[in-house]
Design a protein that fits this description.
Distance between the termini: 20 Å
Shape: flat
Strand order of the largest sheet: 1-3-2
Number of strands: 3
């Protein structure tokens, strides 16, 4: 799941929306494994990659 962070001075992260997306994935039996920030220029986070797995 990709989460776009937005611009340096205009971040568009909505924590409630992210929480809702994660909870919806959990309701479908997905488990959050890791979160990775993707950096662009000068180490600024531009995206967040959430990695999920389904248990066997």
């Amino acid at each position: 799941m990709y989460i776009e962070v937005g611009r340096l001075f205009e971040p568009n992260i909505n924590p409630r929306s992210i929480e809702e997306s994660f909870n919806n994935a959990g309701a479908e039996s997905w488990e959050l494994v890791n979160i990775i920030d993707i950096n662009r220029g000068s180490g600024r986070t531009s995206e967040i990659l959430a990695i999920f797995k389904r248990p066997y």
